[in-house]
Amino acid sequence: MMITLHKLNDESFKLNAYHIETIESKPDTLIMLTNDRKYIVKETPEEVIQMIEEAVKDRYTYLKP
User: Fold this and answer.
1) Pick from 3, 42, 52, 64: CA 20 to 30 A from residue 17's CA?
2) What is the pTM of this model?
3) What is the pLDDT of residue 57?
4) Containing domain of residue 35, as a range?
């Protein structure tokens, strides 16, 4: 499940949300992955979480009765 994020230089990239371990605000948003890679992004932690929630809803809508 990929989400689109933006680096501080406005360059966009796709990130597999299943690999996110933690999201911190220091004050920039720091995303730590399960493989110890780190990304600093322009989006707030709340925006990243909202993107993940929307992607999950879109992916699993076929499960609704």
Assistant:
1) 64
2) 0.86
3) 85
4) 2-63
Read off the amino acid at residue 57: K
Residue 20: CB partners within 8 Å, gap ≥ 6?
31, 32, 33, 34, 48, 52
Residue 40 in tokens: 């600093």
CA–CA dist 2, 9 (Å, integer): 20
3-state DSSP assignment of residue 34: coil
C-alpha to C-alpha distance for 1 and 56, rounded to whole angstroms: 8
* pLDDT tens profile 52-63: 999 888 777 766
Number of domains making up the chain: 1
- Can the peptide bond before residue 27 be classed as cis, meaning omega within 30 degrees of 0? yes
Instruction: State the residue for tokens 């501080």.
Output: 8
